[in-house]
Structures are given as C-alpha cells and as structure tokens.
Write a structure and sequence with these properties.
447 residues; 36% helix; disordered N terminus; 5-stranded parallel β-sheet; single chain
Length: 447
C-alpha cells in the first residue's frame, strides 16, 4: 500500500520467508495516533503490539470488543520481597510487657525488630551501637509510658537521644503515647518528681514535632503499631532488606549497574515501542525553544500542530532540521528501506514540511502579535533518526538505522540534569548542525 511503512496483509517477512503478516496493530499514543516515532504515518488501524518481534493478529475481548494482544499473558508484578527493620524505642521498667508484645507482633508481621535488648545500655560504646542500628533501620517506633528513662549518667535519656538521632537522619518516626501514664505505676515502682517533669517536657517536645497516637492497653498498642507501619510502608516507603538471592535483590543490582548511570545523565525513561505519550505534546506546547531534527518530520508536525502553534503564539523559537529532499542521504534511505517495504519516497514528505510550518505561523500570528519565529534548515547527511528538544528540560530521541522499522526501536525520554546531561549533548549536536547548514545558506525563515 503506497505511503505505508509496513508490510501489507499477507506480505512475507524477509527474516521469516515462511511467515506472512496477519495484521499490524498500534496501541497507545505515541508521537501521535497512527504515527511512528519519527512521525511517519502507519495507517489508521495500525498499532504496535510488541517490540523486536513480528506482528500477530489481534483478537477481541468478548466483554468489551476491545483488541487484545495475542501471545502469552504477561506475568503480574513480582511480590515485594523486602522486609523492613524497625527500631523500637521506649523505656523498659514501665513498658517491659508492652515492648515484648509489640516486638512479638512485628516478628509475626514479617518486620525485623531491633532495640535496646540487643546490648547493655550501660556498656562502654553502647551509644555508638545504638546509632549504627538506628542508621540501618527503616522506621523508628517511639512508645512513651510513665518514665523519662535512663540517662546513662548524662542529662538526656537514651529514649530521647534515640528519637533525636532518628529525626536527624530523616527516618520515619511513629509515636505512641500512653493516654494516662499513672495507670502504669505499680506498688513496687513510682517515678520520681524529676523523672515525671522531664517526661512531661519530652512529651510536649514530641507533640510539637510529630503526630502521635494515644493508647491505653497492650492489645491496642500492638494493633496500632502494626497498622501504622503498614500505612508508613505505603506512604513513606524505605529501602528495606532483601535476601541476596531474591528477585528484588537482583533487580536492585541491575538498577544500580544499568539504570542509575542512565538517570544521572538524564535518561528518564526507555520506551521500547517508541511511544512518547502525552509528555511530547505537553512539553512542545510550553517550551520557549524547540529543536526538531528528523528524517521526515511531516507526520510529527502534522499531529503536534496545535501544540507547536500554542508555543509559537507564546513567543517560542522553533527550528526544524530535515534532509535535503534531492540529496544522496534520502536516496540511500529510500533504497535501503524499499527492500523491506513499499512506500512513498521520504522526499515527498519532506517537501510538505515547509507548507505545514507556514500554516502554523499563520495561525499563531492570528492569535498573538508577539508570536515567535519558525526556521527550517536542510542537512545533507545524518542517522535515520528523530530528535525533539524542548528547552533544556525535556527531550525525545529515537535512532533507527535502515532498514529498521521505527516503532520497534527503543526511544529515550530525556530530562535536564545540567551541563553533562544528554539533553545538553543533543542541543550541542543540533546547534552545530544548524551552524553548518546556515553557513551553506540552507536555512529559511518561515513567514
């Protein structure tokens, strides 16, 4: 079918001579519905089903009639294998049974509890151990009863020091305060007036810094602690601990070695099917400086016309680089890709780009007296690619080498991270190419 970049129904795949194509599907929004990553039309009923594989026929969901991708159903997400370490901070003389009940419940719930039971609080170097254990913990549970606590010969109790240290590290702290501390007094133990006074000051300090939950019974405390931890894990997630041979550990290692270096240079996402989604339109519509470098660009500009018009009306500078229509580069691309598919020559698409840009300029000018500028330049050689840059904050890059099919080529979504990010490198490449094209007199202002 002329103009298509994909095989027709029944056409054989050169890589698999015995297999014919049943149907091509496209799902989700990319550079635009019905367009590949380079902005090339792929037909109204087409969408990409999977990456680096041949296309299969789509079946319909009997409940909704919506297309369902063929092939095995993907497995659900792996269960969270992390376990969270929780430091339980409290006095012991008045809360011994309560601590034991809480720690026992934490173990049953799959947490890793830790606290002063692990060492002698009066031993030399005990505080260094406490600091190390709290640093390794994910959450701190502070339980206040009727005592201020042992000061170890100092002026501040271990309990308050534990709270202060966890706060200094930014650890999530869950606070549980007995509603009526007098109920914890026994015939064999009564707090001193000094201890009661210090506890009152500490309670007020915690009240001013944290939301706390009152409790009265052991059962109530035990349930409140585990319930609050479940909410904390959901709303304030921490690294946790995983077994060395677990899936989570393996994924974490891959993240550290593969993904983290990419994020440091500004790779925000890898799109395996070349679909940019709404991010492309949103960034184009608000950018003040836009650079587009594409082998064709026709379909991209056509689909993104409303957003390019909006940006231009707001004063944006838009520069578009496309190949020289009659140059050797496009001739080579057409020759290579013709071995794979029948379609309209790319040169015909490139010749339409200037006309579409002229329409955008007219529309933006009718909306604003301070509209920006649009320029088009023609390069002679480049990779079969698309590069879209919005200011120094967002970018989209897709590389396809002939005779590749663009929707099967991974794309990179870029975000600004400073001088050494990929966006900065892409802009330098764009500006250098623009300067060369300008020197040759191949830049025109669209009016």
């Amino acid at each position: 079918m002329p103009g298509s970049r994909f095989r027709r129904r029944g056409q054989q795949d050169p890589a698999e001579p015995g297999r014919s194509v049943e149907r091509v599907e496209v799902q989700g929004g990319g550079v635009g519905a019905g367009a590949d990553v380079a902005g090339n039309a792929i037909g109204p009923s087409s969408s990409v089903t999977n990456n680096f594989n041949y296309y299969r026929a789509a079946e319909s969901d009997p409940r909704t009639g919506a297309p369902v991708p063929a092939g095995p159903v993907p497995a659900g997400p792996a269960p969270d294998e992390r376990r969270y370490q929780v430091f339980v901070s409290s006095t012991s003389l008045d809360l011994k049974q309560h601590r034991e009940a809480v720690i026992d419940e934490l173990v049953k719930e799959g947490y890793i509890p830790s606290g002063m039971e692990l060492f002698d609080a009066r031993s030399e170097g005990a505080w260094e151990v406490v600091e190390r254990v709290i640093s390794d913990c994910d959450y701190l549970v502070l339980i206040l009863g009727a005592r201020y606590g042992d000061t170890g010969g100092g002026s501040v109790s271990f309990t308050e020091r534990e709270y202060d240290f966890a706060r200094s590290l930014g650890k999530p702290i869950l606070v549980f305060v007995h509603a009526n501390p007098v109920e914890l007094h026994t015939d064999s133990w009564q707090p001193t007036p000094e201890d009661t006074g210090r506890l009152a000051v500490f309670r007020e300090k915690v009240r001013s810094e944290r939301v706390w939950k009152p409790w009265s019974s052991t059962a109530e405390l035990r349930n409140d602690v585990t319930r609050s931890l479940r909410l904390a894990v959901r709303h304030s997630p921490q690294p946790g601990w995983v077994k060395g041979d677990s899936t989570a550990h393996t994924s974490s290692a891959e993240w550290q070695h593969l993904v983290v270096p990419g994020t440091r240079i500004g790779v925000a996402r890898i799109s395996v099917d070349g679909q940019a989604g709404n991010a492309l339109s949103e960034n184009l519509g608000t950018a003040s400086s836009i650079g587009i470098m594409s082998t064709s660009g026709k379909r991209l500009i056509e689909i993104q016309t409303p957003y390019l018009t909006r940006a231009l009306a707001a004063g944006a500078r838009i520069r578009v680089l496309v190949p020289t229509p009659d140059g050797e580069f496009l001739a080579d691309v057409d020759e290579s890709e013709s071995l794979w598919d029948q379609r309209t020559p790319i040169a015909a698409e490139v010749r339409e780009v200037e006309a579409r840009l002229r329409a955008i300029v007219r529309e933006a000018g009718s909306r604003s007296a301070t509209a920006g500028s649009v320029e088009i330049g023609f390069f002679t050689t480049h990779l079969r690619s698309t590069m879209i840059l919005c200011d120094r904050t967002w970018g989209w890059v897709t590389l396809t080498l002939p005779p590749a099919r663009a929707p099967e080529t991974p794309s990179l979504e870029l975000r600004g991270v400073g001088e050494f990010g990929l966006i900065d490198a892409c802009w330098k490449h764009f500006d250098r190419t623009w300067a060369i094209v300008e020197q040759r007199g191949e830049v025109r202002t669209i009016s």
